[in-house]
Amino acid sequence: MTVTAAASRHVVLTGATGQIASLxxxxxxxxxxxxxxxxTPRPTGQRxxxxxxxxxxxxxxxxxxxxxxxxxxxxxxxxxxxxEHDRNILRAADRASVGHIVKLSAAAVRDAAAHxxxxxWQRTNEDRIKxxxxxxxxxxxxxxxxxxxxxxxxxxxxGTTYALHPHSRNACIAPEDVAEVSARVLGDSRHHFQxxxxxxxxxxxxxxxxxxxAEVLGxxxxxxxxxxxxxxxxxxxxxxxxxxxxxxxxxxxxxxGAKAFTTDTVGRLTGRPAxxxxxxxxxxxxxxx
Length: 289
Description:
Blueprint lengths: L9 E4 L5 H10 L4 E6 L11 E5 L5 H8 L4 E4 L8 H12 L5 E4 L12 H14 L5 E6 L10 H7 L1 E4 L5 E2 L4 H11 L8 E5 L5 E2 H12 L4 E4 L2 H9 L4 H15 L9 H6 L6 H7 L6
Parallel strand pairs: 1-2, 1-4, 2-3, 4-5, 5-6, 6-9, 7-11
Antiparallel strand pairs: 8-10
Helix pairs in contact: 1-6, 2-3, 7-11, 8-9
């Protein structure tokens, strides 16, 4: 696909404090008028053409005000235990006459064997948007390379990484690539009613990622296998038990090879190769030191 410059648009990014939306600002701000939304107040006036609106997914009227006049809205939700959030966003988009919805979903929705809580929630979100009558585009990434940052503390402390099924492979993707792909399609009618599965260029295991990090950092690392019980305990320190169960189910699908497939989507939509894990790790080396 030929990459061309897009006309200036009014774009709304939800989840503005999250990693994808914040990375998208770099690609969009020079050419488009941006509205960033989040639940917490942020400084304004830092960048020309960018405004910040404080609202949350429980406030439909606030979302309508933020979305009004938008050529496109980038939608990020992260709590499958609060399905009303996605309903509220779509209701507000309809009331505000939004021209295009780009939804950050997940590659797992394509897997007929995936029925965990998180995947079913994303499928429901996609189906709801597709039946809304609003032009849509789905961005369906594999696991983010930035999940490796969960190892930063143990790498600094003991030179150790941890994983359930450390030799199972995932075609993980750099968040920066997800952000650029998402920025490319926002408000562009050429991408209406399309779903894009986005992956990195390689399928790597946690053991292989650890070897890459060891080379980048210039010191040995050990990748230790977690038991199912240890992994569940790790997940529940960050998430509700139902989400921990979903993550375990996801890990089992990865062990079965469901996440090893790679796509060329990043290259087709951006005109450059997808970022390798080694490139991503080198760019974030300071986070592990």
